[in-house]
Amino acid sequence: MTEPFGTRLRRAMDERGPLCVGVDPHASLLAEWGLDDDVAGLERFSRTVVEAVADRVAVLKPQSAFFERFGSRGVAVLEKSVAEARAAGALVVMDAKRGDIGSTMAAYAESFLHRDAPLFSDALTVSPYLGYGSLKPAVDMAREHGAGLFVLALTSNPEGAEVQHAVRGDGRGVGATMLAHLAAENAGEEPLGSFGAVVGATLGDLSSYDLEIGGPLLAPGIGAQGATPADLPGVFGRAVRNVVPNVSRGVLRHGPDAGALRASAERFAEEIRAAVAAV
Ligand SMILES: O=C(O)c1cc(=O)[nH]c(=O)n1[C@@H]1O[C@H](COP(=O)(O)O)[C@@H](O)[C@H]1O
């Protein structure tokens, strides 16, 4: 019986620190690295990142869009990257932001959360904006296969507010509603539930939200989007102990040298450790 994602994530965070490095092969980064904007460039980029950091960070988060751009051959590179990252001991969060009516969601769940799927990942990012209940097939599949979800609750981009800060008829905000659904999903799970929220590190003081969902909080926005590790306690308060801070371009811009990538990830990891320890 596979251990639940939350249990595996807690252990990885405790052993390796909570940093998540994003594998985001932007065309502009391929160019900066002196690589062609083609499948060979994509493969070289991804392999370099995985080899540089997958043996030391808790989580790698490949952004599927940058691989899908190249069609089936790009997806083949993604499959290989997931396998290599997992073999090196990192947990993989597939950033594909899926969300659809329940019957279609079941197929997305089979694609990423069934342990026999070629793209099986430890967790998947999903959008709850067809209604949280539409995610049920993914929740069920994740539970059965020891995987997890990260549900978009309060995203790092400024445009997210028009949806996520909207207030429902009962006075509760939409983002807060997603956090409450996740808290219910994780109830009783120790040491950490498998159903996380995405909450941007860019959002400033979130003390009006109940971030104690019993599961992890994936926090993108550090580096290129302007947030810093030192911001984390102010944004997350005591829930910072469950935060998985993501850095993509802030690390990736140091390539193609593997040593420089590793050094950058280690600097972010150390700054995060220091910031979290102070809470
Ligand atoms: O789900 C995500 O990972 C995500 C959610 C969010 O609210 N904001 C956000 O930036 N992301 C992703 O996190 C990564 C951030 O990349 P950098 O800004 O380069 O560090 C990208 O892959 C985004 O797609």
Automatic annotation (TrEMBL):
> InterPro entries this protein is in?
Aldolase_TIM, OMPdecase_AS, OMPdecase_type-2, OMPdeCOase_dom, RibuloseP-bd_barrel
Which ranges of the sequence are coiled-coil? none
Which BP terms from GO are recorded?
Answer: 'de novo' pyrimidine nucleobase biosynthetic process; 'de novo' UMP biosynthetic process
Q: Which residues form the Orotidine 5'-phosphate decarboxylase domain?
A: 18-264
Q: What's the EC number here?
A: 4.1.1.23
Sequence similarity: Belongs to the OMP decarboxylase family. Type 2 subfamily.
Q: What is this protein called?
A: Orotidine 5'-phosphate decarboxylase
Provide the species name.
Streptomyces griseoviridis
Encoding gene, per UniProt annotation:
pyrF
